From TrEMBL:
UniProt cross-references to InterPro entries, sorted A to Z: CO_DH_gsu, START-like_dom_sf
Region (Disordered): 148-198
Extent of Acidic residues compositional bias: 151-169
PANTHER family according to UniProt: BLL0334 PROTEIN
Coiled-coil regions listed in the entry: none
Tree of life domain: Bacteria
Organism: Paraburkholderia ribeironis
One Pfam family from the record: COXG
Protein name (record): Carbon monoxide dehydrogenase subunit G
Length: 206
């Protein structure tokens, strides 16, 4: 399997690099990731659950970064075991290029080999699953890095705005309700004499 993709990320190059080396960020962004822990210099132990076609398994693997040129590029060598599901191993080249001061173009080229049940389900399913996982990772990663340093302040502001809007809406809603009640009372009061008169007119017929 070979996979090449380019992603535009809304963050400066150095901050993107830092996020790619932050285990908390990676844990939140890798689909199905249960844990990711340092295992020596520039290496990580990863546990994740994944489904590739009809094959679902819990994989335990190791990632090793090599040829590091911070904050521009690095290689990743990975291998993982999924029990009866089989194994996967391969490598990827990741490069970062600044796009102005507030955005970064990330390009990666990955190649992998699989064995066991994974090797029996066909390359198209494997490629499709890999692209889906990669797409979900970068979707989460983009959202994660976009919120760095902004989430708490914006969240509080949005919460306050929502509360104010709700209070204002309730205040604005009160007059129409009062008017509706008054209108209903007036209508009821207006109808009462008419109904009384109609009753008398009906009685007078007998």
């Amino acid at each position: 399997m070979e996979l090449t993709e380019t992603q535009m990320l809304p963050l400066a190059q150095q901050r993107t690099w830092d996020a790619l080396n932050d285990t908390d960020v990676l844990r939140a962004c890798i689909p199905g990731c249960e844990s990711i822990e340092p295992d020596g210099e520039h290496a990580y132990l990863v546990v994740l659950s994944a489904a590739v076609g009809p094959v679902k398994a819990r994989f335990k693997g190791r990632l090793q970064q090599t040829d590091i040129d911070a904050p521009n590029s690095y290689n990743v060598v990975f291998e993982g075991q999924g029990g009866a599901a089989g194994f996967a191993k391969g490598s990827a080249r990741v490069t970062l290029e600044p796009d102005g001061d507030t955005a970064t173009k990330l390009t990666y080229t990955a190649s992998a080999q699989v064995g066991g049940k994974l090797a029996q389900i066909g390359s198209r399913l494997i490629d499709g699953a890999a692209r889906k996982i990669a797409g979900e990772f970068f979707k989460r990663f983009g959202a994660q890095v976009a919120g760095v340093g902004e989430g708490e302040g914006e969240g509080d502001g949005e919460g306050a705005t929502t509360a104010d809007d709700d209070e204002a809406a309730a205040t604005e809603a009160a007059p129409p309700n009062t008017e509706s009640t008054d209108a209903a009372d007036a209508e009821s009061g207006g109808d009462a004499p008419k109904r009384k008169k109609s009753w008398k007119a009906w009685i007078s017929k007998f």
